[in-house]
Structure formats: C-alpha cells, structure tokens
TrEMBL record:
It comes from Kwoniella bestiolae CBS 10118. InterPro entries: FAD-dep_OxRdtase, FAD/NAD-bd_sf. PANTHER family: FAD DEPENDENT OXIDOREDUCTASE DOMAIN-CONTAINING PROTEIN-RELATED, SARCOSINE DEHYDROGENASE-RELATED. It comes from the Eukaryota. GO terms for cellular component: cytoplasm. This is FAD dependent oxidoreductase superfamily protein.
Amino acid sequence: MSEGKSNTLLPVKNRLESFWLSERDPVLQNARTTPELPRNADVVIVGSGLTGAMIAYHLYNDAAKVGKRINVVMLEADEVCSGATARNGGHCKPIPFIGYRAEAAKHGKKVANDLLTFEAAALKQYADLVQKEDINCDMHVTRAFDVCFKQSDAASAKQDYQARKAAFPRDVAGQDIRTIDDPKELELLTGVKGGCYGASYPAGHLWPYKLATSLIHIAIGKGLNLQTHTPVLSMKKSETHSGQWEVATPRGSITASQIIVASNAYTSGFLPEFKDLIFPVRGTACSITPAPSHSYGAHPGPVKYTYGFRHGPGEVDYMIPRQGRGRVPGLGDRSIILGGAKGCFLGELSQWYDNKQDNEYMPGAKEYFEGFMKKYFVGWNGNEHGNVDKVWSGILGYSADLLPYVGEVPDKPGVFVCAGFTGHGMPRIPGCTAAISSLVTSRIKNGFITSTAQKAFEDALPQPYWLTQERYTSKVNLIKAAMGQGDNTKGALQNSDEAVLAGRVARAKL
Ligand SMILES: Cc1cc2nc3c(=O)[nH]c(=O)nc-3n(C[C@H](O)[C@H](O)[C@H](O)COP(=O)(O)OP(=O)(O)OC[C@H]3O[C@@H](n4cnc5c(N)ncnc54)[C@H](O)[C@@H]3O)c2cc1C
C-alpha cells in the first residue's frame, strides 16, 4: 500500500521506474512469507531497503553466535526494496578527505578521522560479504576520481588532503589516495574535460537492489518473515504486553520487544519525533548507453573509473560505468549511471526539499543529463539525446545535521533507528547496520543492553552518528543552508558549522 499526494509520509503510488528496477525479484517483489500478519515477533524491522536487508542479515548471524533463535518480521510499505536503494547511483564512494578540516575544527582530529576511516572500511565489507555469500550483484571494485572544476574547490580539497595527511599519515597511505594538479594529466587519465584538480582512491559500484534482495533471501532462509505492502502507520507502548511495542498497520497490529526503524526518508511518517530530524529530499539519476566512441575496441574506449564531478560547494554529479552483468566482467550490460543535476532545481525549494514525489521527473534534469557526456567526456560521439535511456527520481532521507542517526531512541527503550543517510548511504550502511544489530542482539540475549555491548557500539561508530539526546532534541536544521538556499536554520549556527555543513554536503548525493 502506498499513497498519492497526501500529507501522510508514505511512499507514493506509480513511482518512476529506475534502471535498477528493470530486473525485479519475482519471488520477493510482493512477497508475504505468511498470508496473515504475525501477531508478535522478537524484532520488527520497518523497511526493506539496503539498511533493513543488512540488519536482517546481521541479526540472524549475531543471534546464532549467542545461541538465540529469533523471530524477525520485516514490514515494507510497498514492493520489496522500492525506495532509495532501488533508485540510487550504485556508487560506493568512501570520500577520504573532503570536509576533514571542518569536522576536525568541530569535533577534534580523531573524530574527523574516524568519520573518514569508517566510510573507507565499507568497500572491503561489501567485497567480503558479496564473496562470502556468493551474491550476484555486479559488484566491481575500482577507483573513483573526484574532479574539481573550480580553483576555489580545488584549493579547499588540497588543504583538506594535506591536513589529514599531516595528522594521520598511515591512514591516508592506507587509503591509497593519489592527487593530480596538472589539468592536462587529469584529462588524459580521466577522459574528462575542464577539470583543474583531481584525486583518485578506491571505490566500488554494484546493483544495490540485487544486493538487498539477496540478503533478504538469505535471512528468509533463516526464518525472516517478510510482509510487503504493509505500511507501518503508528506505534505505541503495548497496553497488554509489558515492555513491548505495538506496531499498527492496515492489516492489523504486531507486538515486539524490539523495533528497528530502517525507513530512511519516511521515518517521521510513524515516528513524529523525527519530523524535525529526517526530511524527504528528492533527487534524480539516469542510465546512459555508452556511445560508439566509448565502447570496447574504440578510442577513447570505455569509461574506466567512477566519478564525482565537483562543480561547486554542494553541487556534485556522480557517475559509475557498469562493467557488464553477472560474474564475468565485460560481458553484457555496460550502462553508465549518472546522477545529480542539482543546478537545475536547487533554486526551486519545493522541487526537492520535503518532497516525496518520486512519481514525477525533476524539472530540467533530462536535458541536463542529455548534454552531460558530450560536455565533459573527450571524444564522446553519442546521439542527440546523449544516449540517455531512463531518467528517474528517488527520495533521499536527509538528516537535519547531515549525518545519519544510529542507535536506540532516547525515550523509547527497545526502539532503534538507523536512518537519515543524507544521500550517502552506501559507504555508511554496512558499518551502521552491523553496530545496530549487535546492540539489539545484546538486548535480546540479556533483556537489556550490556555496558560491554554499548561500548562496542560506540567504538564501532563515529561519535557524530550516535542518536544522542542532544541530537534527538536539536532544532537546528542545516539542510537548506547546506544547499546554498539561505539560512533556514531554526537555531543559531556556530561559525564552524558553516564549514562543517559544506564538507558534509560535499559528500551527499541528491
Ligand atoms: C537518486 C539517488 C541517488 C543516490 N545515489 C547514491 C549513491 O550513488 N551512493 C550512495 O552512497 N548513496 C546514494 N543515494 C542514497 C542511498 O540510496 C540511500 O542512502 C540508501 O539507499 C538508503 O537505504 P535505506 O534502506 O536506508 O532506505 P530505502 O532504500 O529508502 O528503504 C526504506 C524502505 O522503507 C520503506 N518504508 C517507508 N515507510 C515505511 C512504513 N511506514 N512502513 C513500512 N515500510 C516503509 C520504503 O518503502 C523503503 O522500501 C542515492 C539516493 C537517490 C534517491
């Protein structure tokens, strides 16, 4: 069940078809493991995107390690995995230094470094997971190139790089970052015209929908009950089962001791406390067939790297070149996925901010994407539509301070949130979901979260991600200001916040 233009924050009907949804999972798409909604569970997971899927996967593994059999139900408002995970850029790009100085000024060097090393770890976590479970999701480990087009952005990026390198030389060396100052060399290496500074580092890309649905299949094999088309409408403390939560859906209620909220942009739809914390923000992406000039055997040949095109603060396009289909690189589909186009719509607030209409196109995005490859790629000889195939929209969950909220909700024992990825979920979700799962497993095993489990959680996650009382009750909203749309904060910005939000938004996709 989903709805059209109403005030309820649920996924809308008739959403645009993304490239990734062109191969839906016929078994899971509309699955209900049991025809009736179960009346109770140990854990209810709300949402079946990559976050929900990874949490389900980790939970069954963690529970088995402590010898617990668990009963987990996953509730999904629409088709399985039909939100941002099915509409994104497929790009796992752990950004290794942009924003470092600002975070260091606000939180200290160690925390600033933690934020970056946390993202970097995700690449190996995906690769290990895909290999261990033999998941067919077209995972490809490669290098990303960030290309700056403005001297001011280049200067700022260089300073961030130097500052982190001076403070944490081993971490920077471990991330294998290479920088290029010479525009000619940059063009030769990347095939991109007009850049003035570039940095490359390891990154990856994959088919996010296939990864998520594969993990859900594995969890179902261990006992997960998936209920699609079952939106959570509200939740409250159970009046009949002490210490439990009752989750209401149009198909009846389900009671559980632990609820894990993995509904990203839509979280405040049933948890109103998140109304000032997580906002639906609309973004767009497209798929492109390589032009003859960028196909195998041609010159310059296939696009090799993944990219971040940095046009200005907050204005970034992102791109991956798919490397074929299945387990044999080079064979089959080689679509290029390109997202961003922010310059077309950022000035018109209602087009993106607090907007959940991914059944509609973003104005100007199609034309922008159609002109993109010819404008930026040397020798591109595509057709008059820039070889663009599909264009779609998607709803990102932007958090008020531009970082995810991860942890137990301060005034709701047993309710956990893992959401607000602010357009940069891929490098964050593996670590965040593993941390949440171990916290919940401690609660399942002991009836409470042990101090050891709490410490392990805090050690595993960068401190600015923790869902603290302070963040939970904060009224500061940095989103519009971060997008260059005036100071719309409800609270006063500290001086350093301006720089912090510039760095955080440089990592976000929209
Ligand atoms: C256009 C676009 C491009 C992007 N590009 C990138 C990229 O290249 N790299 C990157 O790192 N990130 C990117 N992102 C962000 C990334 O997709 C997200 O961070 C990530 O997918 C979030 O996963 P999730 O599972 O938390 O949320 P989602 O995938 O949105 O899943 C949430 C699920 O919860 C369900 N739900 C919502 N409300 C309810 C309810 N009341 N009851 C039950 N279920 C509910 C939804 O239907 C949905 O299936 C992009 C996002 C978009 C939209």
